[in-house]
Amino acid sequence: MSSEPVDSSKSSLMEINPEKAEKNKAKNDAKRAAKLEKLAKKQDQFKTITANAAKPKTLNISSKTEFVNDTPPGEKKDMSKPMASSYDPMAVESAWYSWWEKSGFFKPEFLGPVSDSREAFTIVMPPPNVTGSLHLGHACMLSIEDAIVRWNRMNGKAVLYLPGCDHAGIATQAVVEKTLKKEKNLSRHDLGREAFIQEVWRWKEQYGGRIYDQLRRMGASADWERACFTLDPKLNVAVKEGFIKMFEEGLIFRSNRLVNWCGKLKTSLSDLEVDMKEIEGGAMFPAHGHDPSKRYKFGTMTFIAYKVEGTEEEIVIGTTRPETVFADTALCVNPKDERYIKYHGKNVIHPVMGNAIPIICDEAADLELGTGALKVSPAHDMIDFGLGQKHNLKFITIFDDNNVLNDNCGEFAGMARYDARNAVVEFIKKNGTFREERNHPMVIPVCSRSGDFVEPRLIPQWWLDCKDMAKKSVEAVRDGSLDISPKEHEKIWYYWLENIRDWCLSRQLWWGHRIPAYIVHVEGEPRNKTLEDEVWIAAQDEHDALKKAALRLPNVDPSRITVHQDEDVLDTWFSSALWPFSTLGWPEETADFKNFYPNQLMETGSDILFFWVARMVMMGIHLTGQLPFSKVFLHALVRDAHGRKMSKSLGNVIDPIDVIEGITLDELQGRLEKGNLDPKEVKVAKAGQKADFPHGIPQCGTDALRFALCSYVAEGRDINMNINRVEGYRRFCNKLWNATRFALMKLGEDYMPEPKICLLGKESMVDKWILSRLNAAIAETNKAFEANNLMNATQAIYSFWLYELCDVYIEAIKPLLTPDNPDADSRRCASNVLYICLEQGLCLLHPFMPYVTEELYQRLVRRPQDTTQSISLAAYPLVHDEFSHPQAEAAFDKLYEVVKTVRRLASEQNVPKNATVRLSTGSKDSFGLLQAQEVALNSLVRSIGALELVDSVIEDSQPIGTLGLVDSQPIESQVFLKFNSK
Question: Domain residue spans in the chain?
Fold first, then answer.
């Protein structure tokens, strides 16, 4: 039997209907039937074995490696040392990043300026909030973005990945205030504005640097010299410029409207900062600003009678908020409600204050809901506010900044709101206007930062009219100028922007961009003017404001004019909305603005499509005259393995560094003790951690984490993050390591690859098969990247490396790479193909696993004239037409099916390791085909036993597969198998 391979361009395999084999099969049917029962039992046993093998293996937490990096910062790692026998993520990931950064590989100008022949690709990183450390949501964002960024860079584009951090006004202020209270028992008011802001800046310096270190650790190939913070001076100039422009256009204005108010933080809130909490009827809760020992009842409908003026008749209403009765300025009934027609145009008597208030008719009153009548409190309810404006009702505010009742509430003034609730109910019970009380499940708004119950309040604020900007943003998606992916989010886009409301810009905070608006005072004139009489100027600074004020008041002596800047700060989302262009130097026409604006892609979480993405689009269109980016790619939310939203109080928030380095359960729980959770929350969180991570989190490395996160990214699906999956990809890294180490050993130190990727002309069937599969992986990966379908990209690369290159090709060619192989051509071809697969396979994988691919790439000997310094600068693989060989693929796939069947049957039948594997066919032509692939067959079944090929059907053998084309001629042949134990 010759071991010399046959030119597989003249022979391939395909399935046919084997008549000869059927005759032989009939002879053996009787014997085979007797074995079926025994075989069935063994198959059941085999299923159990494979099921157990599929269960995730657990890495030993206690054995996580500690690695000391002896490479000087910024220097290239010494690759002359022997390659380690196994993969160690801590060793592999050391040193590379500082070398990449110092070398300037991530600067868009590194390979030359932006030009017509070298297009730009820009993506600005969604800036993480400077409120602590990153979580897996950030890690997911970064893994996706950096994979896309690296792919574009390897495709020759001038890539700018611009990093940064967000000041996160309310979130940061809330955290710092909580820390001050816990550590020093101080409030921000105890410190004063300037001292408190200095305290927040110290927090920013501590945690902002930590966040940047985490981003680097995750492998973010960002240009750090261009990093921005949303409170940087140049961004502050942009924020002021945007505000001033829209103020002077009349789009920004001051108005007294309802806002979400947090009494604990004493600021208005955006809708994103309000959580809607579902409660059962009669639920009891503590409340901020109240006696901490008390619990207050929520989810109760109180029915109150309002006497019709001048009669003994009454209209009964139901309310969940009896404490707002002081703000009532009308009752509302539906004009079609026959029960109340006789009361149209009449008044009712206020049940507490005793004054008359009108009955108004409006379809806002639902005939089927409750009694069909509503109490109207225009200054303290979003729906009632609209009714108040429509029917010209009086607006009575009843709460101060602390949500304590004010002087409009008579004898109840000075009460905290829920104490007042109880007092009002007792009062109406005594005066006879109380009718009944029922439990009523409901949803109540809660401040996401403080946990306080949100109160609608009427307060003068700055507002932005977004209607025209929103209309243009809708048109951009409809006409295809702006692409949103996944497409399902377009309907959300249209809903929000077609129903846009004015945007409340002001926040009653100290940390943030102070609003560049100045109120104008004239000496000798009263200062307590109505909102309508106030004069406001928008300006870059006080000097500019005084000049504008003098122009605004030409008949006033400028020496009598003074200005005072508004104490409030802008909503964080305002500065964030300018992020794609303020970071590039706008409003100046900088080189960066010219070269990198508009951006090509905005990648972010689907949960902030309206709050951030829509606002960036609106601001970009209005302030720069262009869309800020042409594509939006939205990833889903990262949840825990159980599908729950990640929350500190559940103990399921994971720091990506803990997945990279590993952490014990004790260390995880020790952090909870140092955090800001209250003792009850700590207890719940610890229980959650113990349930999810009973042995802690194993050391997985950055590459495994990035690959795992990207492998989850599919359209429209939330990501239920399971650490076991990351462990699996850590083992995949080990497989890469071992395969490359073996290949380098077999190629030898003196191996020199061909000057360029090419075929040598004498490739075997398995050579052609693997190159064709490589081509398929390249095509599928590039297609997936173009569609931002990273799940498909990771699957294509993983399958190629693991199931085709490692499990099949390397195993098949092992005999050809031995020094005693007499066939120099087969060795040279196999070596060339193996090198191509390693080189191209590492480049394919690099965007997802930057560290291990760089380490292994640096181990590969370079092609002559190849001066590529880093794999991050290498060309991304493209399809080679000459590698596509569907016939070789089909042929080898059939042959490999034979191999897999041999392995399966050997397992099912408990064949001993020293058995002989005898394969035969019913055709001399097909026997020649088996013989031509004997080297590959022998290597692939070697773990079972020695292979013996027989040119006639063996007695008592069983058919296990079919063969097809030989010399492009169809044959009818079936492969038979028999194990001979020694």
Answer: 8-48+902-980, 53-75+719-886, 281-440
